[in-house]
Amino acid sequence: MAVIVSAAACTTKAPGGSSGGGSSRDAKIAFLMPDIASTRYELYDAPLFKAKVRDLCGGCEVLYQNAGGDAAKQQQQADSALAQGADVIVIDPVDSAAAASTVRTAQGRGVPVIAYDRPIPAVKADYYVSFDNEKIGAMIGASLVEHLRATKAKGGLLQVNGSPTDAAAGLIKKGVHSAVDSSGFALLAEYDTPAWEPGKAQSWVSGQISKFPGRIAGVVAANDGTGGGSVAAFKAAGVEVPPVTGNDAELAAAQRIIKGDQYNTISKPIRTVAEAAATAAHAFARGEKPRGRTTLFGTPSELFTPTVVTRENIGEVLVGDGKPLKTSEVCTATYAAACAEAGVG
């Protein structure tokens, strides 16, 4: 993980409400996540972020909230965190545009804001930590196209994007188009999935199966939730599931890949971004200003490079000792045979 370099003290709010640098011993750090549709936030992001903060600052308190996909609720959670004396806010926005008001309010009170995983284009947050979302889109799209060419697949593609209110989804969408628009596979239809909800992705794909019978060669889905919804649509229709992409390396996605129901996902070790965000938050709490390796939307940023995972490399990258997912979690009785066939476990 890239090392975050700190500069001299800046004029952010220090613990206890004073301005300038100081001890972070009793700092309060708000960690505001967007939804529960993606299981990662409760299972990984929050625990890993809390653990890193605890390692850096035993007396610091993490104010964790999940908005459940409700932008208004997330705004209330941010206001509550400020009322409780938060010294830093780390936010993964439900709605990237709506989150601009959170940034303005916090900064107006001298509280720095770190955008986490999803950017906030309308205003300059103090820092941004994520994997490179545009590159993620390009990678899953290119991986799928390469596979379809290798298997001499015929037909066109469905593109299932993420939430239209999520700026990161917009970057993934842009990356996907860069990979598939000139691929030679026609784009049959495209859909922006409200709130990233798998059920809505499933419903839309179901309609496209009826509209384009026998003509869908593959589905470029922006994350594992929408990918899982896409797979479920084909299964419910009783037709063969074409190659479907994903992103986030969720447990269920790993099992679908091993079984052959999903073609790929993206491994972006959440520990990397969670710990980078915690380190940056701790620096801000000390009155220091981290410097990013690049900028995005005018914000100093740390953008990490992910890895494409398919059945061929899942045991090397994603599942096993020292990997993001444990073999015992993935290779349950239902998937034991498929794991053995894939050389996992």
Structure, described:
The strands form four sheets. The protein has a seven-stranded mixed sheet, sandwiched between helices. It has a three-stranded parallel sheet with strand order 8-7-9, sandwiched between helices. The protein has a two-stranded antiparallel ribbon with strand order 1-11. The protein has two domains: 164 residues, Response regulator (Rossmann fold), CATH 3.40.50.2300; 171 residues, Response regulator (Rossmann fold). The two termini are 27 Å apart. 41% of the residues lie in helices and 19% in strands. It is globular. It is an alpha/beta fold.
Largest pleated sheet: 7 strands, mixed
Q: Tell me, what is the CATH class of the largest domain?
A: Alpha Beta
Radius of gyration: 21 Å
Based on CA inertia axes, which overall geometry fits? globular
Provide a quick synopsis of the model.
The chain is 41% helix and 19% strand. It is an alpha/beta fold.
